[in-house]
# Entry
Amino acid sequence: MDAARRAWGLLVTCGFLVACGPPPDVTLAVALLPGELAGYRAVVDEWTAASGMRVAVVPQQYADIRRAIAAEGIAGRGTLDVVELDVYSLAPAAPDVSVLDAADLGLDGEAVDRAALDAGRLDGLRFVPHRVSWQALLYDRTVVERPPDTWDELLAVARAHPGRIGMKGARYEGLTCEVLPFVWAAGGSGTVFDDAGARAAFGLFAALAPYLHPESETFKEPTIAEAMARGELVLHLNWPFAMSLYASQGLAPSRIASAPLPRGPAGRATVLGGGYLAIPRHAPHPQAAAALVRHLVGRDAQARLAHELGWFSARRDVEPGGGDLLDGFVAMRDAVRPRPERRDYPALSKAWQEAFRAVAFARAEPAAALAAAGGRGAR
Amino acid sequence: MPARAWLLAAPLVAYLALLLGYPIVVAVTLAFTDAATGTFPSVENVRTLADDGLFWRALLGNTVLPVATVALELVAGLALALLLSARIPARRLLRAVVVLPFALPEIVFLTIMRAILAPRGYANGALAAVGLEPVAWLLPGRLATWVAVVIVDAWHTTPVVFLVLLGALAAVPAEVDEAARLDGARGLRRLWHVTLPLLRPAIVAAVLLRGLDALRIFATPLVLGGAEGVPVLSTYAYHQWSDYGDDGAAAAAATLLAALAVAAALPLLRRRAEAAA
# Structure
């Protein structure tokens, strides 16, 4: 009886140990969609095979990763070795991550887009581009034969399809990413509300307002993508993930295609987004973490991520993947601009949002809305 | 209280202190801390809320929505309980049908409702089929959006009130009802003067239970109309936290919501104690 009990105890203990496994050498928190995990895991496994170090990949939302490293910063010790953060989170997260060595990571040459790399410099290089992203125009090619190439053509499409032009007008950072490309495309700086570019962009918004889909006031990325899939929209702006989503639903590229954003008086522009890697200040294994980062931003890993997940790389020596699905995004590559780098950026961003909402949904005069935003942004 | 009783209660007290007391203290501290300077106490977050029109709409929503949904649930739940406590054919099956919306996972239920109420959804499709204009069910600031949120939330949670009142009706002594009948009380008079007074403790319990639950309504307005469709304090706090990363403003809104819940619970608890007495 005792022997049987001992054998069971031993079996349970062995099972427990096998199930738990040894602790990982490196813990990586990264914002992945469920469909991306297997492909990403394969790229990480290449490093494990070469280095012999195990990696725990923890899929998390950017906001949760930012809060986690902030909490670890307060606690003075941590569990995360490498984290991925979105561009919007870089400034607030900067105090909680270590300064990196570009040369050590193989990023000091001409291979990496300078503007993308500079966006990660906050009192030194703290974040390196893991993937870069920007918005393009997504349109229903069964309704709109040719995507609008200029603001006038955009307005013509809106007039021809009232209520079927969508903009992400909810109160959040995504709205700023809708507004700034138009301001920049008209020659505006994006940091002041009274330049000619801001006035021209808001004039366009006022002209588009009567033709916007009624739910634009609450649209965010997923809800506007759903509305397009349901056939309620003929065009909207979105990030590359939306095209992957449509492709998985069989809607792209047959029905929904991507195109460059319409050209403004000063050309085209779009906002830089994407994910940046960093090593938290209290990472338990900083050496191994640096080696993993070097692998992930290296040419081979970036090429695989581009090919298998359709990600855009900040490396110039990596061809974009995704085939013709992402043509519109590829065409916008040279028009990508980072958001204004200012300590008060959140207040500035909110002011742009309020100004757009006033013009698009409350039908305020553009000049009055911009003047009010100027007051708010300056506070 | 003897020491042994304290000892037995200690695990629960520790659990509550750790998972309830500590987060409350942190949230209140966060609500009254200026994130920019780290100053405590500070009313900076309260000022942020006061300057935001959406906050005032959320406060209004947190007043109107619980009252409207609980009133609708009470009327519907009572009517269904009275109907299905009577000896009618297939009443067991009908009771199961009434409880079904509550059994559905909330996010599944709400996603279906969103597809039904979308601008080109099934509801507007049905209206168009009979020659009526489409209704903007999900747009911010519209009466139709408020109505949609109230009806959807009530539909989902009426089974709670129904089950509480059905149980109470089953406990009403048959002889009381019979005596009223013999005395000539009929229909609404019997309901008003006999049944409802006997159901009063159960009604108070149902209102208390659902009223407090309705104060923290979150998923229904958020899924149907986003943070701005029919804003309430919980969706407003979530909006500040997730969209703006403003933990202090979110904590201030959540603290206010908690204070409202406590303020609402006290008189209801007192009334329940009186009803029980």
